[in-house]
Design brief:
Layout lengths: L9 H7 L2 H7 L14 H6 L4 H4 L16 E6 L10 E7 L9 E8 L4 H10 L5 E8 L2 E7 L2
Antiparallel strand pairs: 1-2, 1-5, 2-3, 4-5
Length: 147
């Protein structure tokens, strides 16, 4: 287009956001994370290639984590296309006290009502059987294990 995008006014948006927010939210520049709760460098230190490192996890298997217990962490969100997305993770709890938690799966759902979100989260651990579940908003955790 000759005049560029005319759906919003950047000058008006500069007035609505702080300089850091404007650069981060609208110009896609990363903020300095030194004051973050979880600095990127600390998160990156936790990353592994699960296909190479985790001998007890087979992502493509019928039971990816065998008969081991998994937890589901679920953060519901109102079902709008433009709103916050719902998040859901399948977590392997540590085998020993003080051990590491592992994220086996992660999902984000946008534009889905709560019923659809609940159905998807309930179907996630297809390789496990529900033992207990608990829901506490704004987030929930459900425990699954073998029977």
């Amino acid at each position: 287009m000759r005049g560029g995008c005319n759906l919003f006014d950047l000058d008006q948006l500069r007035l609505e956001y702080s300089p850091d927010e404007y650069q981060n939210l609208l110009m896609c520049e990363f903020l300095d994370d030194l004051a973050s709760v979880f600095p990127l460098s600390e998160l990156q230190a936790c990353m592994v290639d699960s296909w190479e490192v985790w001998e007890d996890f087979q992502a493509l298997a019928l039971r990816p984590f065998g008969w081991r217990e998994v937890w589901i962490g679920y953060d519901p969100a109102k079902g709008t296309q433009n709103g916050d997305s719902a998040g859901c993770v399948v977590i392997a709890p540590p085998m020993v006290p003080g051990g590491k938690f592992r994220i086996l799966e992660r999902h984000q759902w946008r534009g889905m009502d709560f019923r659809a979100q609940a159905e998807l989260s309930a179907s996630l651990p297809s390789s496990t059987t529900c033992l207990t579940s608990a829901l506490t908003l704004p987030a929930s955790v459900m425990a699954f294990t073998k029977t």
